[in-house]
Amino acid sequence: MQKSYRLRIKGIVQGVGFRPFVAKLAGKLNLNGYIENREMGVEIVLFCAEKELETFLHRLKIEKPAPSKILELSCEEIKTKNGEPDGFIIKASKKNGEITAFIPPDIAICNNCLKEMFNPENRRYLYPFTNCSHCGPRFSIIKKLPYDRPLTTMKEFLICSQCESEYTDPDDRRYHAQTNCCPECGPRYWLETEEGKVFPEEAVSKAIDILEKGGILAVKGIGGFHLMCDPYRESTVQRLRRLKDRPFKPFALMARDIETVKEFAEVSSEEEELLVAPSRPIVLLKKKKDVFEAIAPGTDRIGVMLPYTGIHYLLLRRLPVLIATSGNLSGEMLCAENREAKEKLSHISDAFLFHNREILNRCDDSVVKVVDGKKVFIRRSRGFVPEIVPLPVSSPSKLFCAGGDLKSVFGYVKGNAFYPSQYLGDLQFKLNQDQYLLMTGRFEKLFDLNPDVVVVDMHPGYFSRWLGELIAEQKGAKLVECQHHVAHVYSAMAEHRLESCIGVAFDGTGYGTDGTIWGGEFFFVERSHYHRKGWFRRVVMPGGEKAAKKPDLMATAYLFDAGMSLALEKEKLVQAASIKTSSVGRLFDAVASLLEICHENTYEGEAAMKLEGVASRGGGRVFLPFGLVDSEGAWEVDLRETIREILRLKERRVSIGELSYAFHHLLARVVLEICKKLRDEISENNVCLSGGVFQNSLLLSMCRKILSDSGFFVYTNEQVSPNDEGIALGQAYFYMLKERDLRW
């Protein structure tokens, strides 16, 4: 018997070809009804028998477009007033209530569009903006929901009759593709040289000529500008380093295809899956021998991505690999506007490849690595944002979580959904602060977010805290503090739906409840309650914050603490220092300097990365000692004997590789011993590892193995980065558990 059914689907179902797919599926099954974009996602009404509904739902779930995600699906029988339509139609978008729909991230160009782009018989031959309902820009161009062309920056481009015909044809791949365009009606590229010459025609071929001659090109893409050049020309690479003031920080590479990548890097099946995914992140791969040493000096890994827009494929036709680094001034977010790029990048680039489609929401490339077969985010941005992170509890409040300042990401909570922003960089830079402010406003409009609770870091000097306080004051919202390292632990708990754990938080810096700098912390967490149960013995930071950039200063502090004799000048420097830290990040700096690997951080994490690179070539024959001191029911890790032993072994000419490896293994043993002591005390088997130090593949892998072998269940961040990008998620979960505990 025929009935009427209403389906409501929540998830990433707008802007990914979902409505055209449903219309085609209904047509194949001879079902009448309609689909429309709604404030919560999409609504489908079907007129069919129960068995036909079951068939439809089964095929919907297994055949849906690859970029789409169904998070919730409800189905109910209804009575309709307007009668049954003839066939199945796509209705105009409608908004009747609060927005709970999700926006898709930007999606790499699909294979079908690529084939058209390189087919001389196709009207889109060599057209770099070729896209369809399954690929192309999304988050970077959207102004507001629902996802319709007039509400994106494609509004400026009036669709031509041929594209309109595709848009309205249910059998066409571009049926209801909001970004559909062609050379007649869409955006265009042009080339501008440093001399001011403009080439509206043959822009791409002239750009390739510049690259082949050793030039540096600024290229506008989906989320912003790249600086691109030939990585095989060492003089060009060194010029780029000099002009960008980036002496040692690795550059990312963009390779033509996966076969090219395998010529210079080792690629596992999990890494290949990430490389070819529609999100197209930069994947950190193990180098084959010492290739591209000038691109990633002193490290055993190299960041590689595959092309994800038409312009990338066109530029890579004659050059198989290109450097593709963020087009920015050091420390700032990447440039997104043509005028801005000319002002900031003219001293670096020899020419600009501009286009005339506005980038509304700038978004840097995402960076990931694979450790023990699992994805670890280094930077979560283009291709992933603004996908939500589902939370294990729901909040009656709307939250704004300000995150941290160094690798800034804010987040909002509505119900059980966490909406993370794109990577916004270091908030000491004015541009990044401006973008942070701009994007908070955009997120509130996009997703109908008006927070009544604001959660901030405890650090009194953070810009994110200041802004959180301002938002709370303006909106009359409740202001809540969450300690930095506690937030790290809660971020991993949120991802894995945990309510209790032993939390291990290792990073470079974070304001502690005692006013000192923390960074090597152990906690017992139960719901919204936490207790600090361990830490590394604190040492001073000679020169204050300057010590974070000078590993040799931290080495001096650890030598002094270990009772080693120092030159009078260095001894005075240590004695004059007042800031103390328990940071494992600073400990990595000190050991890297003691082993003559790195004495200065020219970029954040340089010493630690180089120490890991050396350790990965070492072995496991050296065993370093450490001490644990019971301090009023908590454990202090004492490494004074460790430092003395490292120096003794170094004098005996034990290799730097062996000592570096032994240091990593020492930290894993420290984690195990304290976790075992806490398990004996509180009977807890869950361990969460978070904080930027756990981006270290070797240490993370060692900790996972040694803990798992001892019967612990080990959890790490997989949906957000373990670095400070994950702070906002931890702040959210901390408050939500606290709110629930108060209700109970």
TrEMBL record:
Would the keyword Translocase turn up in this protein's UniProt record? no
Q: Which Pfam families match?
A: Acylphosphatase, HypF_C, HypF_C_2, Sua5_yciO_yrdC, zf-HYPF
Tell me the GO BP annotations in alphabetical order.
protein maturation
List residues of the Acylphosphatase-like domain. Answer: 4-92
Judging by the UniProt lineage, the source's domain of life is Bacteria
The family annotation for this protein states: Belongs to the carbamoyltransferase HypF family.
Q: Which NCBIfam families match?
A: hypF
- Output this protein's name: Carbamoyltransferase
Q: Which organism is it from?
A: Kosmotoga pacifica
